[in-house]
Amino acid sequence: MDELIHRENLSPNCDARALPGARPISMVVLHYTGMQTAAEAEERLVDPQAKVSAHYLIGEDGEVVRLVPEERRAWHAGRSYWRGVTDVNSASIGIELVNPGHEWGYRAFPAAQMEALLPLLARIVKTHDIPRANVVGHSDVAPARKEDPGELFDWPLLARHKLALPIPEVMLGDPFDNEGSVLLALERFGYDITDGRAAVRAFQRRWRPSLIDGEIDLQVGAMVFALLLDRDRGRAR
Fold first, then answer.
1. CA angle at residue 91 from 86 to 96, to 5 degrees?
2. CA atoms within a 13 Å half-sphere pointing along the CA-CB vector of 178
3. Torsional class of 78: left (φ above 0), alpha (ψ -120 to 50), beta (otherwise)
4. Cis peptide leading into 69, omega within 30 of 0?
5. Which among 51, 67, 199, 221 counts the fewest CB atoms within 10 Å?
């Protein structure tokens, strides 16, 4: 029995983590399901034809379903990248949050859902010694393909519980010489900048959700600079 897990519905869509070149678990990737109903989402995550899964599914009512044991490699991240890791599935725990997503009526994540996420995420972070900077959204690791969990996700709540980095408070300035320097700084922080505009949008969705336009402005540059400075000072654990 597990006090944080309400039930299991084990998915066949997983494999062993011990693949050639596999890395230890070092990150958590948060998703939304992006389907019209919770039932449809759960059915897809256990459908062998779909070839997708996650370790956990959290309903809007706070129900937590284990789909894949943490020691197994769930297929949740797809083609993705974060801080030099290209096989994100091997290095991560994936958590799906029931939400219709941008296609079907995107909405805020209910309190019950977030309250169920907090202790589960806290346990995962503690068990695997995951730094706060590596608790990320799907859009962070796949900026050209994904936009979940999206701009309505309550990252500040996670930050208050020390489960994610807080949004930096910055004074507007111009710490970089040009836009190319900002993109290189984004890459240094962890993002794939192959599609620069997509990387900027993903950064904004996570760190400045009030304006997501893919444009590099003074606030974006100052925030990237502050995050890198905190990392270099050892404040990003």
1. 100
2. 1
3. left
4. no
5. 51
Contact 94, 76 (CB under 8 A): yes
SS3 at position 97: strand
Q: What sign results for the dihedral spanned by CA atoms 225, 231, 235, 237? A: positive
Residue reference for tokens 């907090």: 118
- Of residues 42, 96, 147, 151, which has the active-site annotation? 96
Region of 105 please: left (phi>0), alpha (psi -120 to 50) or beta: left
Active site includes 187?
no
Q: Please give the structure tokens belonging to residue 3.
A: 């006090």
**What domains does the chain contain, in order, with CATH numbers?**
7-160 (3.40.80.10), 179-232 (1.10.101.10)
What 8-state DSSP symbol labels residue 82? B
Can you tell me the mean pLDDT for 184-201? 97
In this predicted model, what pLDDT tens digit does every residue of 4-28 receive, in sequence order? Answer: 999 999 999 999 987 655 679 999 9
